[in-house]
Amino acid sequence: SYELTQPLSVSVALGQTANITCEGYNIGTKYVHWYQQKPGQAPALVIFRDNNRPSGIPERFSGSSSGNTATLTITRAQAGDEADYYCQVWDSHIVIFGGGTGLSVL
Amino acid sequence: QVQLVESGGVLVKPGGSLRVACTASGFSFSDYFMSWIRQAPGKGLEWISYMSASGATKRYADSVRGRFIISRDNANNLLFLQMDNLRAEDTAVYYCASLGGSYHPFDSWGQGTLVTVSS
Fold first, then answer.
1. Within 10 Å of residue A29's Cβ, how many Cβ atoms?
2. Rounded to whole angstroms, what are the CA distances from A76 to A13, A79, A81, B104?
3. In this complex, do B44 and A96 lie within 8 Å of one another by their Cβ atoms?
4. Do residues A9 and A101 make contact, with C-beta atoms less than 8 angstroms apart?
5. For residue B17, what pLDDT is reported?
6. What is the pLDDT of residue B117?
7. Set of chain B residues whose Cβ sits within 8 Å of the Cβ of A45
8. Which of A16, A27, A80, B2 has the fewest beta carbons under 10 Å from its own?
9. CB pair distance less than 8 Å for B50 and A95
10. Cβ–Cβ of A90/B47 closer than 8 Å?
């Protein structure tokens, strides 16, 4: 079965750029969606279809995908960006989530 | 605005049954696929089931197939998850989420309902 691998945690200095990766076999051939989950809250969509932002999501959030790696990039990181981030793809009509990455803003 | 509200989560004994519900508002419920996703305490997200807008298509994760059944009432904007033969490992917050179709992202989520399976 298809698997997605994310780093357990990523740290970024306030105002700097964070990159959160999501690895999967030929992930570049699939659409990747990203979700943000803040403590005690439900997940929320921040990037869909590799690099599209839903309305209300700041331009600081962007995505890319190629080969075996998809990346969520957060520029000018803020304290409010601290959260768990999950990548997600579809494979054979089944939903696959990555294990999640905890982002710390230092 | 879109609102999804889950209900029905309680403490249940192993081997027991439970039905949780999701009440939708603020969008055309009958036009959307709906899904259940769960999160065990301190763990990541696990997709467990989705259902097409008409109800004709249902899919399940291996971990729940044969024990859980997804259903919907489009007339009343309700989504259900019937859970039978519950196990300790089913303990989780259960979220309902909407999506535009197969291979679409989950664009709206409820706040979740906690199901605890314990003796």
1. 11
2. 9, 10, 10, 29
3. no
4. yes
5. 98
6. 98
7. 105-107
8. A80
9. yes
10. no
Q: Quote the mean pLDDT of chain A.
A: 97
List pLDDT tens digits, range A41-75: 999 999 999 999 999 999 999 999 999 999 999 99
HSE of B99 in the Cβ direction (CA atoms, 13 Å)?
Answer: 24
DSSP label at B44? -
Question: Is the four-CA dihedral A44, A49, A51, A57 of positive or negative sign?
Answer: negative
Q: Which residues contact A25 (CB under 8 A, 6 or more apart)?
A: A2, A68
In this prediction, residue B87 carries a pLDDT of 98
Tell me whether A96 touches chain B (CB under 8 Å): yes
Within 8 A of B112 by CB-CB distance, chain A residues are: 42
- The answer to whether A89 and A63 are in contact (CB under 8 A) is no
- Mean pLDDT along residues A10-34: 98
Contact B115, B90 (CB under 8 A): yes
Chain A contacts of B109, Cβ < 8 Å? 42-44
**Torsion sign, CA atoms B35, B110, A84, A47:** positive
